[in-house]
Amino acid sequence: MKLVGQLTPPGDKSISHRLGLLSLLAQGRCEVGGFSPSADCASTLAAVAALGGGVERVGERVILSGAAGRLRPGQTIDCGNSGTTMRFLMGLLAGAGGRFVLDGDESLRGRPMERVAEPLRRMGARVECAAGGRPPVIIQGGGLRGGQFDLPVASAQLKSALLLAGLQADGPTTVNEPAASRDHTERLLAQWGAQIRRDGLSCTVWPGLLRLPAQIWTPADASAAAFFCCGAAILPGSRLVAQGVLLNENRLGWLRVLERMGGCVDVRRQGDDPEPWGDIGVEFSPELRAVEVGAAEIAAIIDEAPILALTASQCHGVSVFRQVGELRVKESDRLAAIIGQLGALGADLRAEGDDLIVRGPTPLRLPDAPLKSFGDHRIAMVLRVAGLLAGGWPRIDDEACMAISHPAFNDDLRRLAGMAS
Ligand code: S3P
Annotated binding site for 3-phosphoshikimate: which residue ranges? Predict the structure, then answer.
């Protein structure tokens, strides 16, 4: 099986979340083109509307009317499956007057929120998590003090939560990261009129309101593109172009790793607004070699680790992904899921402490039993690509979860693989 043709992935999920959520602290009205059709971003838009933001969906366009920081308190907000929605809202609501409760589905209720709650408490907010620092989260905000924060993990969600709280504090707030994570929040804050200073891994924001631009568009999702591009690199005969894709370097860690493996990749930058974007061409790459991916690179490949692990299973040699412990606290325990489910297809993967070790190349075969996604979209999607490599379309126990990030994933994959839907 091969992947041949062109694909425009859905609008970027990370940027779409931020457009919606930051509009709560902004004045003005903005027409967004190419907004992500993901279930996660639908959770964000529902939350924004519940809190008093204006949200109008017109096909792929979303019209946002800023709430200028005047949020409706006394509510329970359902964040669905979306960690981004919850963690951003924790920071955002910590600065608003009143009491809010943030809750989510079973997967989200298992994810760590204390890492966000603790620095927000230091800023002066009252934040309570349920047992084990998990959701639901109760926030009684207002009266925040700015400060300096050294983050224990490279997490764009944690960084962003503190920057959004900082916008509503009494003075500057500085966030220092241990390694670079995606920087869409900082870029939007600067574009939307915040006073912000960036210096390497450090970012300082001063209090103030944002101003929405009249129009903005969302480049196609770099993480969604990764599943198809890596799939094309390992499926003999493939030749694929992902069009209009976000080319922010913090989101292209997977492409750099694929290049290091010897992947045949061609990137054509087409524009820079609101962030760099362009086309990514990938061809079947017959001589892929094992690589070592260092701890400092992990934040930039965190969502693509599953598809890179599959790609590594087709490389010659032993690949090592250092310090990928964060994978254990994603929508599922992705480290266990990758090892167990790609292992069920015949790949040779194991964990050594927090490192992931993949030995290749291994031929894959379709298993008799259904594969398990653990309700995690990125696990379901990597199993689909792995299935093509094994020559078929295996049963997966839950693939509805793909809608969390890419509702048309199966249709896009079938079309590019030349399969009837
Ligand atoms: C995201 C940040 C990452 C990523 C998630 C989206 C974002 O999470 O895994 O899918 O949009 O900021 P962490 O910040 O927890 O690493």
Answer: 13-14, 18, 155, 157, 303, 330
* Best probe residue, ligand 1, of 12, 13, 14, 151 (max atoms within 8 Å of C-beta): 14
Label the pairing between strands 98-103 and 134-141: antiparallel
When pLDDT is cut at 50, 70 and 90, the band that residue 60 belongs to is: confident
Q: Residue 273: pLDDT above 90?
A: yes
Q: Model's pTM, two decimal places?
A: 0.98
Task: For the chain, list the domains and their CATH numbers.
Answer: 13-206 (3.65.10.10), 219-417 (3.65.10.10)
- Specify whether the CB–CB gap between 12 and 33 falls below 8 A: no
Tell me the CA–centroid distance for residue 118 and ligand 1, in Å: 18
Coil, strand or helix: which one is 138?
A: strand
In tens, the pLDDT along 99-155 reads 999 999 999 999 999 999 999 999 999 999 999 999 999 999 889 999 999 999 999
Mutual orientation of helices 156-166 and 83-94 as an angle, nearest 10°? 20
Task: Give percent of the chain above pLDDT 70.
Answer: 100
Orientation of helix 156-166 relative to helix 184-191, angle to 10°: 30
Active site residue 303: yes
Q: What is the CA radius of gyration of the chain?
A: 21
Establish whether residue 14 lines the binding site of ligand 1, counting it when its CB lies within 6 angstroms of any ligand atom. yes
Q: Stretch 306-324: mean pLDDT, rounded?
A: 98
- Asked if 369 and 355 touch (Cβ cutoff 8 Å), the reply is no
Q: Position 128: which residue type?
A: E
- Tell me how far apart the alpha carbons of residues 201 and 34 are, in angstroms, rounded to a whole number: 30
**Distance (Å, whole) CA 412 – CA 243:** 13
| Choice from 17, 155, 328 to test ligand 1 binding pocket (greatest atom count within 8 A of CB) | 155
Distance CA 410, CA 312 (A): 23
Contacts of 151 (CB under 8 A, 6+ apart): 158, 159, 175, 176, 177, 178
